[in-house]
Amino acid sequence: MRPQLRVLSDELIRQILTEAKRIMAETGMEIRGEKMRQRLLDSGLKLDASGKRILFTPDVVDAAVASTPKMFTLFNRDGEPHAEIGGNNVHYVPGSSGLKILDHRTGVTRLSNSADFIEYARLCDGLEHIAYLATAFSTNKDIEPQVSDAWRLYMTLTTSKKPVVSGAFSEHGVPRMVAMMQMFRKDRAELIKKPMSIFTITATGNFRYGDDSCQNMLDCADAGIPMEIVPVTLMGLIAPVTLVGALVFHCVDVLTGLTMAQIARPGTPVLFGGAPATFHMKAASSPMAAIEAQHLNVAYVQIAKSLGLPTQAYMALSDGKLLDAQAGGETFSSALLAAIAGVNSVSGPGMLDFVLTFSLPKLVFDNEVCGQALHFVREIKPLDDLPTQDLVDQLMRDNHLITSPHTLKHWPNELYLTQPVIDRLNRETWQEGGSMELNERACAEVETRLAKYEPFETDPAIDAAMRDLVKEGFVKQTELPVLPPAASKPAPVIVAGRRGREGRRRR
Q1: Which residues, in sequence order, are CB contacts of 485 under 8 Å at separation 6+?
Q2: What is the pTM (predicted TM-score) of this model?
Q3: pLDDT in tens, 408-456
Q4: What are the structural domains, with CATH classification, of the chain?
Q5: How far apart are the first and last CA of the chain?
């Protein structure tokens, strides 16, 4: 068996779902996308008395849940199986929606650009415990915003063959991105059969789905792109401050999105997801790493699992501004909770500052955190150690088990050995190596891994066609940003220390 986490009783889950379905049937949802609204009405759904809200009856919701795949496969760019999404399979993926990057070479937080994104993609491609990529942060500094979603996807597809979590920034952004991905499949049918991405659909809040989300959902369904429905449930602001009440609101948003996706195209893979936060009554901020938000995450995941649905959550992240004790504590605690809860797709590694800022050093630190969390939730079973008398006899004879055949056989899988970003040295050895602190070790690991990145070829015709798709969306811009070549050796890093002390040059 594996460790498991249950925070709700079966009876409470039933009550929450019953109440969510009641709200969907009696209050309904405002659907602002005209095409989606008409699709729902054509399917037989009714309007409320005001004529403004669509009512979702329990039988329609139950049918949608039944038609949603319980598990699906993500494929890589080459069409090979990469990740099974469902059950208790746990996959960590960088968080999305960042606007800035914490530059590890200068210590400055600034707007991100295409060169930053390329370095991120190269780094992420080689991280052992990050299952697939996300279009993690915007690059609006050097690309027009209406095509920045497609540009990020282009950079991802030409830098890594792993699947990617992405999404469109505008109402009509999905078709351009679908056209890019289809270039790596022989036709639309194969793209549907072998999806290489998950797209995020965001519920607007206040029981409403906006124009962009509705059209993006229709376009994703048409292309067979798996979707994660991600409400930003703000406890104490637009959702109840209490856990059970917030869960009801959250389920209304997700189940509405799931039902619309199934009406648009039955059998479309949908993840029961979310990005909840609390509303800080004193700071007027929305911490996603708050313990109450983590409680909401694991609770709605348990509800989703009771329905047999794949799951997603924003966890393994921090609201802190630096890679410090707060970032480590918030990230490790939520990453471990996500693993024990069996979240299928965990969005968050690399993120700081309420998912506004991305950090490459934090990403390599989080890679280690995620590796340890995955190690913790492995299946527990006897491994040549029941009965233990042979081991007892060896210990009594040799006074140790270091060279025991049992130890030599099992230690490579049983003991998780961390990368240098995590300090496991004794103090003397640590001092001899320069007394490097966490951020310094993480920065050095970033440069080491970037230097090891091995580029691969993309068919020149496909590459040119993808670039043309982006340029077709230009309004004023005429040229695409110039992307940097792969590094040939680690670059020197100057890491600013605490209290503004002079940085130390590291390789």
Answers
A1: none
A2: 0.94
A3: 999 999 999 999 999 999 999 999 999 999 999 999 999 999 999 999 9
A4: 1-380+418-507 (3.20.20.480)
A5: 44
